[in-house]
Amino acid sequence: MSFSNGLELCFPNLLNSSCERAARSQSVAILTDITLSGIGLLTLVLNLLVIISISHFRQLHTPTNILLLSLAISDFFVGFLFFFQIMIIGGCWLLSDLVCSLYCLLEYVITSSSIGIMVLISVDRYVAICDPLHYSVRVTEKRVKVCVCLCWGCAVVYDSLLLKDNLIHPGRYKSCHGECVLVYDSTSGVVDMIMSFICPITIIVVLYVRVFIVAASQARAMHLFTAAVHVQCSLNVKAKKSGLKAAKTLGIVVVVFLICLFPYFCIVLTGQDSVLNITSAAFFNCLFYFNSCLNPIIYAYFYPWFRKSIKLIFTLQILKPGSCNLNIG
Questions:
Q1: Cα 107 from chain centroid (whole Å)
Q2: Which residue ranges traverse the bilayer (predicted)?
């Protein structure tokens, strides 16, 4: 149902309690829906390729790649969130209040776990570059798997406690039908900002500044060393160069992540009250979600193993017996 002023209701049969649909031209609405659907589908496919690659090929079962696998799983779920954003940008939440609460919880868990994984990646590169002699002892597959599980578990518990009122009383704070509202008190908001943004981002920045300082000094040292002794220790130099390249690549992943995440947290930090209407933050949500589509593209550009694994997947060679033992390095 529409009115003379051009406004439309989300639920025309609920005249007095329905929310108003966002005012958008049909062409803009179609373009937005197609764009978000395309990005969401691309995010799902690209991250699924990362998940299959690292899970299938034994050569890729390294501590660093286990962290990338966990990040890809998180990014894979983000692909589904794009389809919810289509409704939110349209101004009407057409699903139940319980689904709204679960959507908010999933979004927060994905954000918290992604930030936690980024911290673990920073720690991994810090140990690999700053203490390479003890890296294989301190950073093992088993320890990394335990840390990843703890990261996801803590994210679920923490965000469930943060959003417990929304989960216990779905839709309690909405002003009209067709609205999805996230509510938390000011104290929880401050704690969440410190725990989910300020502390982890500080850790990431400090560790990576240290990593690149050490990496720069190592690069200069290797240049001088290879000029003096080129043949005898070429394998050692190659290993160090590989570690520096991995640090650079993962550094790009971290920087892109921070760029995409920062605007959303700025909006939360400068909010005027404790009620965040998800519709008003839809654009910044999509910007953060878009980071999940960029990560596999970064891998494809910098990691030859990912490009080779994609070729093996699309040519169905991974279905052959023993394909998991192929050399794709």
A1: 10
A2: 34-54, 66-96, 102-123, 144-163, 193-213, 250-270, 282-302
13 within some domain: no
Residues 6+ positions from 17 with CB-CB distance below 8 Å: 11, 176, 177
- DSSP H helical ranges for 93-233: 97-130, 135-138, 141-162, 164-168, 186-193, 199-228
Domain total in the chain: 1
**Assigned domain for 65 exists:** yes
Q: Which of 163, 255, 150 is nearest to 212 (CA)?
A: 255
The Cα–Cα gap between 291 and 236 comes to: 35
Please give the pLDDT value at position 247: 63
Q: Which residues in the chain land under pLDDT 70?
A: 1-7, 218-247, 264-283, 329
Asked whether residue 239 is assigned to any structural domain, the reply reads yes
- Residue with the two structure tokens 């992604």: 114
Q: Give residue for tokens 């921070």.
A: 258
Residues whose CB is less than 8 angstroms from the CB of residue 84 and which lie 6 or more positions away in sequence, other chains included:
103
Report DSSP letters for 10-41, one per residue: SSTT-TTTBPBPP---HHHHHHHHHHHHHHHH
User: Which residue, among 95, 96, 98, has the nearest Cα to 168 in the 3D structure?
Assistant: 98
Asked if residue 298 belongs to a domain, the reply is yes
pTM exceeds 0.85, yes or no: no
Looking at the chain, the number of H-run helices and the number of E-run strands are: 11, 2
Whole-number Å distance between alpha carbons of 265 and 123: 23
| CATH code of 209's domain | 1.20.1070.10
* pLDDT confidence of residue 273: 42
Residue with tokens 């329905």, as numbered in its chain: 18
User: Residue 47 is part of which domain span?
Assistant: 28-325
Place of tokens 């704690």: 191
Place of tokens 């300020």: 198
pLDDT of residue 218: 65
Specify the pLDDT at position 164. 87
- The gap between the terminal CA atoms of the chain, to the nearest Å, is 60
